[in-house]
Structures are given as C-alpha cells and as structure tokens.
Amino acid sequence: MRRLLKKASRNFLYLHPWQLVLAILGITLGVAVVVSIDLALESSLNAFKQTTQALSGKASYRIIASDGGLDEKLYTRLRVIHGIQNLSPVVNGYVDSTATTTNNTFRLYGIDPLIENSFQSAWQQQYEDGDSLSIMTEPNTVLISRQTAQKMQLQIGDPFPVTTDTGLHVLKIIDWLPENDAGELFKHLIITDIATAQEILGLVGKLSAIDVLITDVQTAKIQRIREALPADVLLMPLNNQIESLRHMTQAFSINLTALGMLSLLVGMFLIYNSMTFLVLQRRRLIGSLRSIGVTRQQIFRLIIGEALLLALIGTVLGIVLGIILGKNLLPLISGTINAIYYPVDHSALIVTPVQIATGFLMGIAATLLAVLAPAWEATRQSPHRVLIRSELESGVRRLIQSAAMLAVLFIIAGLSLIMLTGNNVTLGLISIFLMLLGFALLTPLLTFVLMTMLEGGLSRSSSVLARIPVRMVKSEISRTGCAIATLMIAVAAAIGMDLMIGSFRMTVSEWVQASLQADMYVNLSGNMQAANKSAADHLLKQKLAQLDGVEMLSSVLRTRLIRGDTPSKISVFEINTRSRQGFIFKRSLNSEVWETFNRQNSVFVTEPYAYHQGIEIGDSIKLRTAQGEQSFKVIAIYADYSGDQGHIAMSRNIYQRYWPDLGYSGIGVYAEQGSNVVQLEADIKQLLKPYQTVRSEQVIYKVSMQMFEHTFKITETLRWLAAIIAFVGVFSALMAIQFERTRQLGILRAMGMTPGQLSRLISIETGLMGLIAGLFAIPVGFIMAYLLIFVVYLRSFGWTMAFHFDLSVIFQGLLLAIISALLAGVLPALKMAHTKPADALRAE
Amino acid sequence: MLYKLQTIFLNMIKKPAIEIFQLSKDYLESGQQHVIFKDLTLSVTEGEFIVLLGRSGSGKSTLLNLISGLDQPSVGDILVNDINLCGLTEQQRTLFRRHHIGFVFQAYNLIPTLTVAENLLLPLELINPVSSNDKNKVVELLTQLGLANRLDSYPDRLSGGEQQRIAIARALVHNPDIILADEPTGNLDIDTGKQVLELLDNMVRNVGKTLIMATHSEEVIGKADRVFAINNQSLKLVADNR
Ligand SMILES: Nc1ncnc2c1ncn2[C@@H]1O[C@H](COP(=O)(O)OP(=O)(O)OP(=O)(O)O)[C@@H](O)[C@H]1O
Ligand SMILES: [Mg+2]
Fold it and tell me: In ligand 1, which atom is closest to the CA atom of B60?
C-alpha cells in the first residue's frame, strides 16, 4: 500500500519536472547564500586566530604596549632579572615586495630563532629537522613559502627586495617556510630574525610584542610577570585579544547573516509556492486516495516525505554551491573587515563539519516550515468531494482573512520586540523579519482590495478584455498573492536598503565635508615605534609652517592607549580655530568645551565609542600611563563615522603630559586666503619622504566616499542574490499560475483570441502584479529603511544619521518590481500562447 | 421520392461549407505512432446538420478540433468556406475561427472569471470594440434563453443546463456560419439535454447555419441531415435523412 502510494505521487511529480527543479532551486539558492556567508565570514574572522596560532604556537599570553612599542630591554629584564622562562619576542610589520612588477604586501615576522622550542609554532617546525639556522647566522635573510616564491619565479639564494618606511632593503631567500595547513596565510608571510626585522621596519631597540607560554597551573607566573611590567605595558591573554576582535565585528557579522537569512526567507516562498502547486494539481489524486481509504496522516506523511526528498537534494546542492559562492564572497568580506576593523591576513575558505551540519539543518527546517501549510491543505481534501468554485472562493477569503490577522499579529510582535529589546542587534533584526513577514502576509488582502477597486473603476468601461487580467489576479489570489508577496519583500528590502545607504551616504558625506576644514592633508604614515619618527615629524611640521602661503596647521596622532585591560584607540589633536568647526557635537556640556579640552584632563569621545562603552558626558575614563592610571573627564560626544568602534579624542597638550611623543599621523595645512594651492601642494611634496603623501581636501573627500561605497559592496552583492531568488520565485509562481489555467486559456484561444493577444493578456496581468508589489513595497521599504537606520544601525554601530528621502529610489523600486514581474512572465506567457489550443483544452 | 431528388439537387447547387479531403491524424506517444483516423473525406453543405457518432476515443473531438483549426491534421486538407485551413498560419487560423466558428463544448467551458454577460460579450469584442448595440444583443439573446436575470452571475452559480445554454449563446452571439458542438449534452440529464438540443435545433437550423455535432444521443439522430460514425479509423455514413 505504502509503495503504491509513493508511486502514485512520484509518477505525478515526474509530470512537473520544472516545478520540482524550481522548488529545489529555491532551497539550493537559499541554503547556498546562508552557507556561503557563514563560511566566508567565519574564515575571515578566523584568519586572525589562525595567524596567531601559526605564529605564536602554544603561547597563551602576550605582552603588549601602546603604540610606543616595547623596549627590547624589557625582554632581557624579564628573562635575566626575573628569571621568566618561555618568552618569545616578536617584531612584526608589513613590507612591500619589489621582486616582481605587481606589488605584493607581505607580513614581515621577526623572531628569535634561539628560543625554546616549547611554543611549537609553525615556523619552529623548520628547526626540528635540525636544519639550517641560517637566518640567524646570516643577517638580512628570510624564509618564504615555496609556492609564493615559485609564483614570483624565485629560488633559494635569490635576492628579495622590499620597501618600507625606511627605504629599500635587499633581503635574501635562504630557505622555504615549512609546509603548513595555514597555507594561504603563509603565502604572504616572510620570516626573519629580530635584528633584521627591527632594522627594516625602523624599530631598532623595540619589540612589537612578547609571546608568553603559561600553562593552566602557572597562575603565580602571571602574577610575577604583571609585577615586573611597567604600568603602561599589558599582559593579555591571547584568547581575549581574539575574542575582542570577534566582539568588535559582531554587529557586522549579525547584519551579514541577516542578509543571508533574507535570501533563505525568499527561498522559502519559492518552496511554498512550488509545493502548493504540486498539492493543488493533485487535488483529484488525493481525493481518490482518500476515497480508497488512505488516511489523512498518510497523505500528510506523503507530502512531507516528498518535501524532505526535495529538501535533501536542494540542501546538498545548496551546500556545494555555498562553498563555491563562499570562495567568491571571502575576499569581499575580508576586504570589508580590513577596511573598517583590523587587518586580516589572506585566508582560505575553511569548511567545518559543524557549519555544514548547520546549513543542512537550516535547509531542511526551512523547507519543512514552508511546506507545512500545503501539506495540511492536502489532508483537508475530503474524499471525492467536487470542489465548486464558490466554495473554493470562500475558502480563499477565509485564507486571506486569517493571513491578514496573522500579519497584524506578526507586525505587532515585531514592534513590541523593538520596543522591549533595548540595544540587542539580533532581536532588532528578528523584529524586522517578523514585520517583513507580516507585511508579506498582508499582501493577499491588499491585492484583493486593490483589484476590487480597479474592477470598480473598469466597470464603466465596456471592454471585457481589459477586465480579464484584473479578474485573473483576483480570482487566483492564493497563487498571485504569494508571487506578489515574494516580489514585494525583495523590492521592499531593496528600497529599504537603498534609502538606508542613501541616508548614510548623505550623513557621511556631510560629516566628511565638515571634518575636512584644512585645504590639504599630509599623511605622515611611518611606524609609530620607529625611534626617529617623532623628531623627523617635528622637523617636517616646522618646514611646512614656513612654506609660502601656509596660514596655519593642525595635527592628529592616531594611536592606542590602554584603558583598563584593553587597548583603546585614541586621536590626539592639535586644534586651531578653523579645525574646531570640523567637530559635530552630538552632546556637549557647555560653551567652554574647547578651553577645558586644551587645559584640563578631559577628553571627547566619538558617538560609537560612547555607545559601545556606555559612556555619558561627565563620566571619567581611566588610562594607563607610565606613572600609573590617570583619570580623564568626558566633556563632549561628537559624530564620527570612520569606524564603528569609535575612539577617544584628546588634546595634544594633555597627551604630552603623560605619554611619549610619537610624532604625528597627519598634519592639516590651512592655506592663506588667495594663495596658490596647486603650487603649495607641489612645495609640500618636495618636503615629503616617498611613503608620505599630501592630498587635497577634495581628493580625501573622494577617497573617503569611495571607501564608503566599498564597504557596502558586500551588502549590494547579497541584496542582488536575494533579488535573484525572488525573481526565480516569481517566475515559478507565474509558471504555476499559467499552468493551472491552461484550459481556461485554451477556451480563449478557441474563441478566437490570437497567441499575441493571449500573451499580451498575461503580460498585463503580470505587470499588474508587479505594480501591486511595487506599490506595496514603497511603504514597506520606508519602514525597513527607518528600522535599519534607527534600530539596526544604531544598535549595531552606535551611529545616528538623518533619514534622507530619495524619490529616485522609490521610482527605481517600482520599476524594478514591474520589470522583474514582466520578465518573469515572459516565458510562461509565450509558453501558454504557443500551446496548441487542442492540447490546452484537453488539460484538466 | 421526388422530394428526395429535389433535396439532392438542391444540395448539389448549394455551396459546400466544409470539405475534407483524405484527412489523417496521428500522434506520437512515448515514441510510438498512434493513428486516430486516416483518409477521411467529407463534404458538408451550407446549413446542413451533421451528427458524428463513435465510441469514446474514436476521434470525434479530434475531428471537430481539426475543422475549427484548433488542431492540425497530419495529412490531408480541410476547406471551410473555400479557405484551406492547412495553408494558414496559427494567427490566420485564429482569426478565421474568430469570425466563422462557434464552438460548444461538452464541459460548457465558460470563462469562470467573467460574468454571463461578459462571457457573451467577449466573442463580440474580439471582432469589434463593444458597443451598446452589442450589449442589447446579449440581453436579447439571454432573454430568448430565459436567462436575462442571470446577466451578472458568474457561471459557476448556474446549473449545468443553464451553463450549456449560455455556452450555446456564446457560440452564436457573433453570428458565425458554422457551429461545432462536441457532446453538448454529455454532462446533462435527459430532460435538460432535450432542452439544449431543441435550442440548438431552433437557433442553428432555423437560421440556416451549418451544424456538426458529436454526440451519443439517439435523440438527435432523427433530426440530423446525415449521420456519420467514426469506426476503425474511418468515417462511415450511418443515415441520410435528406
Ligand atoms: N495530442 C494527443 N496526445 C495523445 N493522445 C491523443 C492526442 N490527441 C488525441 N489523442 C487520442 O486520440 C484519441 C481520440 O481522442 P478524441 O478526444 O478525439 O476522442 P473522442 O472520440 O472525442 O472521445 P470521447 O467520446 O471520449 O470524447 C484518444 O484515444 C486520445 O487519447
Ligand atoms: Mg470527445
């Protein structure tokens, strides 16, 4: 019996291969996007951990200082005076290889080859073979990955020229790096001894960090080291560092994941549509099965079984496609993390069984969820009852009503969730999804109302032909409604994101413009720890001030200080009357902020910093100095969109009281009224070293805005993926709709309607559906944008921005909806128009 | 006898409305060629009433579809009003059908999303934009059928007999010369079937239109001019009442 049952259903499924393919495609695409984002994101985020593990081995703690760097004497002191074992000093930086014409950035990692082998880091494997210790016996020699060298057509013994702030250095390849699973990372790594690294990077006498091996039982050792360290040096668990980076990118990750979920949601509509079609087409078969004694449970299991089979195929394909897609998303995602968070090394896509299993479960769960309604619908089919249209129609009315009621419930739930969840990003996004789903469920009702109104409008016209498309949309509302809802969601998401990005762009643009008060900016770059940097910077500043046409200067030093137990970004400003106007205060105490800022122990913080750290005006921030902790009062909060973690701002006057001079990161040049700016720029260029740049305010503006666009590239890509799935969904729905009315269209053909007239009729219908979707997507898109700006972005990043209305976005959304509906309708329209009428009439 | 000769003579000078030459139709199913019928030849004069008999699956519907241009023959020619359907494009065949053919189906086949009146207006609109004249015509026709009060009803609210009467009205409303009816009483009970046949008889024969009807109903045989049966893939004359 069961076999027979399966056969009956399977034979039927073979009759509709395209709906099967589309259902599978829905699952595949949805799963693929979710899996690819997960893989690419995890791989990018893991790159840092991987790097750390490969280079630091078993080290569990790390000694770091603020940007001033560690004095190398500290290492000797810890070892010799305090007798602390298992320390590994590290000098770390980036160099550009000039060995080939294409510029290649390498991470230069300077190590002490003589340290104990207890760290078991990847580079130490080199020495286990008892081989060459040559990098320490011969200066200016490096290890490089064999693959990279081969790509650059280099051999052992070949010179390897690199440039850094300190100029050109010719290194020599002495051996290959050990083969390692962190292959991608090692492709962009060169290892050398500490002395060489110090020289090349201009860090003579300094260390970047000291790795420390501490086992679980050695808590006393931690205490000992802490006591031995100066006040401005930090002993930090490596895991904490990895964790804090992860924490930093959390909001970014959640937002990306949500974008992936949007694709899965749209994919679910596709599955729902296909399964509904397959169930409705079998109404008669199911009726007959019921009449010969097949139970409701059996029917339910049959449909669910089918869905599971489809889900299985779709999910497996989706995972495979997800891995491929993930490889392509990886550079986009790491690029964005690189641009806004911290440098991520190149990494390969890592696929873990847990991620595969998660993707698998999500695919199956999404399918089952989507198929629940049609499966239930199938069981309600009573044996051999002829369904007459009016009965179906009242059923549909009930369906529309319950959908609308559910919609209201979803929207209210979404709204309350927003109100009640404070600053939680995930719950904020979930509430958006709830509302989106709510609006989707409201679509059939809205369609019904709109079509009834349109029908009323048309009743004055005597043309029957004009009425047919309207009636078709209305009479098959359970199908058309689903297609319209799918399209509406995709378009609303597009409108919402466009409005949000537009508002953000506007805000950032205004902010950049306001911030850029100087005419030109000199970027001094250079390694912060470099011993001679500060002196060189001061000299340069003096020369700049003396140039013809320079009215005044401002400066900034971007560095890190240790606040509590973690490093915090800080910008140290030297401000003049004009650069003050570059600060847009969100909140401030009084009109004397600038006076206080320059003279007392006080700081400003940026809006995201205040948000993430929960800082209010009047609070105090404690920062580590060489003489112990110092307290600084927060006197203002200002707008800053340069990073989503934010930073502290301090006056240079105050900074110099407690911390060593590290020179400048940038100098702003204010030209005298009427001076020749082009000439001035050329003059400045003369004073600069090759790695230093001067750029006009306009160029910086342009570059900043390009960066802005760049960080939204991944968002754009994912949005298009969701749109493509929605398109397939609409296509599948239209195919189903047209197929279901084959006979009706056959009658029209029999009555003398030409193929052209028929396809026009169908196109008008699909265009109408697109129009409804577009019209509804406008308010929904608005709400989305509003929620994205005032809930998600605020909660994620602490940025406030002004809502910027853009009519062209609305117009584009409407157009997108209509065009994609029309496009999706082309094939079904042609197919129906060219079905032989005799065959069409033979259809059920 | 004389009367009979007279009709034969009259039939000879009357124009043939439909001429079918050596018509064959076969189809492919799972790679196999199936022949429905072959070498059918038939000439139908204007105003004639032909009944097609044949057991289920013999090809009655197929033949009607061929005559209306809904389907195309494998071999042979079909001339309707001297137009060879086989020489026409799909578009031309459709336009031909629009003007010359009225089709009545077994399953009524009214457009479910259009009201009764709209169903009747549609064939008219396909020929010319709807005028108030057309509307009057529809009302008049429905009044004749006793269904004037169902003007704005949707077809599924009507009984089978009522629907079939509307379907007949739809086949006639644009004044075609040929009416093809495919088992118009197949889904109706005997009494309703009788009514429908009577209606067809009144509205078609009495105004001189050609009628070809596929049916199983014995009733009709007596009223037809000629009765054919499709049997063993060919057409056999069963009765000639001319
Ligand atoms: N395109 C086609 N594909 C498959 N089979 C076809 C096709 N066209 C016709 N047939 C077959 O040709 C035969 C004749 O069909 P047709 O519908 O003309 O029969 P009929 O005489 O009208 O039968 P009924 O009295 O049951 O209506 C049937 O066996 C049908 O299955
Ligand atoms: Mg038939």
Answer: 21
Q: Where along chain B do its domains lie?
A: 47-73+83-240
CATH number of B47-73+83-240: 3.40.50.300
Check B122 against A465: CB less than 8 A apart.
Answer: yes
Tell me if residue A522 falls in helix, strand or coil: strand
- What is the mean pLDDT of the segment spanning B128-135? 86
pLDDT tens digit sequence for A304-357:
888 898 899 999 999 999 999 999 998 888 888 877 777 776 677 888 999 999
Which pLDDT does position A102 carry in this prediction? 67
Kindly give the pairing relationship between strand B226-231 and strand B49-53: parallel
- Binning pLDDT at 50, 70 and 90, where does residue B38 land? confident
Contact between residue A125 and residue A119 where contact means Cβ atoms under 8 Å apart:
no
A750 and B123: CB-CB below 8 Å?
Answer: no
Band (pLDDT 50/70/90 cuts) for residue A694 is very high
Is pLDDT above 50 for A440?
yes
Average pLDDT, chain B: 86
- Binding site membership of B57 for ligand 1 (Cβ less than 6 Å): yes
CA distance A730 to A727: 5
User: Which domains, from first to last, does chain A contain?
Assistant: 1-51+247-387 (no CATH), 87-207 (2.40.40), 525-691 (no CATH)
Q: Give the lowest-confidence range in A600-604, A637-641, B193-197.
A: B193-197
Query: What's the confidence (pLDDT) of residue A464?
Result: 87
Tell me, rounded to whole angstroms, the distance of Cα A630 from its chain centroid. 37
CA of B61 to the centre of ligand 1 (A): 7
Query: Cβ–Cβ of B130/A463 closer than 8 Å?
Result: yes
Burial A411-430 (b: 16+ CB within 10 A, else e): bebbeebbeebeeebebbbb
Spatial CA neighbour of A589 closest among A613, A559, A616, A626: A616
**What's the DSSP call for residue B205?**
I
Residue with tokens 């009655």: B60
With the most atoms of ligand 1 within 8 angstroms of its CB, the residue from A839, A841, A842 to mutate is A842
- The pLDDT value recorded for residue A386 is 44
* Burial class (CB within 10 angstroms; exposed 0-12, middle 13-18, buried 19+) of A46: middle
Question: Which residues in chain B have their CB less than 8 angstroms from residue A463's CB?
Answer: 125, 129-130
Q: Which two tokens stand for residue A651?
A: 């006056």
Q: Residue B92 and residue B107: Cα distance in Å, rounded?
A: 26
Structure tokens at A561: 């200080």
pLDDT of residue B13: 60
How far is Cα B214 from Cα B223, in angstroms, rounded to an integer? 13
pLDDT in tens, A161-190: 888 877 788 888 888 877 765 566 677 888
pTM, whole model, 2 decimals?
0.85
B116-127 and B160-172 helices, crossing angle to 10°: 20
Q: How far is the CA of B63 from the centre of ligand 1 (A)?
A: 10
Q: What is the pLDDT of residue A384?
A: 46
**Cβ atoms of A735 and A766 closer than 8 Å:** no
Residue closest by Cα to atom 31 of ligand 1: B57
Residues facing residue A693 across a β-bridge: A523
DSSP state of B39: E
**How many angstroms separate the CA atoms of A60 and A217, rounded?**
13
Which residue from A583, A41, A71, A487 is spatially nearest to A259, judged by alpha carbons?
A41
